[in-house]
Amino acid sequence: MTPQDLVTGVIRLVSLPEVCIRVNEMMEDPSTTAKALGEVISRDAGLTARLLKIVNSSFYGFPSKIETVSRAVAVIGLRELRGLVLAASAVETFSKIPTEVLNRVYFWRHSVYCGVVAQLVAEECKVLHSERLFVAGLLHDIGKLIIAHRLAEKMKIIKQRVAAEQRVDYEIEREELGFDHADVGGALLREWKMPPTLCDAVYFHHHPADATDSLMDAGIIHLANHVTGMAEEGLDVDIETIIQPIDERIWGVLAADASVIETVSRKAGPLFSDALDVILPRAYPI
């Protein structure tokens, strides 16, 4: 079995809504306007409600209420709204996947925190369109949900071995499956026809130096994943997490040093609470 086999096996269950696919297509057209994008999104009442909840949250902190999607596009920009559409759609889509072997509440807390940290790191490193890194961080471990759903017994073994051997999960996944969750997540995003930099950031987040065309994005998600693991140490959760050491080669790519960890960790807490409240659907109790 390959990562593509796994993705193909659940693609109907984890297909993005038509509106999300249409938004992604429109964003590839330079003539797309905020008005046209707003009209397409507004056809999906549920997505519209989630997006307006997000942009009116303290995560953004706009002084006056934003009441239409077109206004939201005008205020936060086309690129950021594209990311929010994908984020909201993906989380809602994966709420349909049944799994008894993965704590989904913990999974999404980890994912949202990683997204927040990734965006903060991008801002510290003066990366353009830093909002895209929130989406990459949010989705970096999405392959775990597919593995848990399709290969539940293998996932149990992987979790047991992580706890017993105190080794990082992706190494054990490779031994048990021949691939890891980053491979599966990258395959899914390619199936969804997402931007190559997003696919690479997920695919290479454990091995950022291999991401020749997307070194910056992969390095940021790699670092954000490490910072998230540090923040989770000592939490009372029913999952064993072993933190991957930082690949020191990323510092040259990011033009930063380890002091950025303290800076983003200090800012992440309040933003995490806001993002968690508005990103997760009611299917996931906080």
Task: Lay out the secondary structure.
Blueprint: H1 3-10, H2 18-27, H3 34-41, H4 45-55, H5 69-76, H6 78-94, H7 104-124, H8 131-139, H9 142-150, H10 152-165, H11 169-177, H12 181-191, H13 196-203, H14 215-232, H15 250-254, H16 259-279
What report would you give on this structure?
The chain has 286 residues and is mostly helical. It has a domain at 3-14 and 100-279: Orthogonal Bundle (Hypothetical protein af1432). The chain is 65% helix and 0% strand. Helix 1 packs across helix 12 and helix 9 (142-150) crosses helix 12.
SS content category: mainly alpha
What radius of gyration results from the CA coordinates?
A: 18 Å
Q: For the record, what is the CATH homologous superfamily label of the domain at 3-14 and 100-279? A: Hypothetical protein af1432
Order of helical and strand elements = HHHHHHHHHHHHHHHH
**Most strands sheet:** none
What fraction, in percent, of the residue positions are helical? Answer: 55-70%
Separate helix tally: 16
C-alpha termini separation: 35 Å
Short key terms for the protein model shown above:
65% helix, mainly alpha
Short précis:
By secondary structure, this protein is mainly alpha-helical. The chain contains 16 helices and no strands. The chain has helices at residues 3-10, 18-27, 34-41, 45-55, 69-76, 78-94, 104-124, 131-139, 142-150, 152-165, 169-177, 181-191, 196-203, 215-232, 250-254, 259-279.
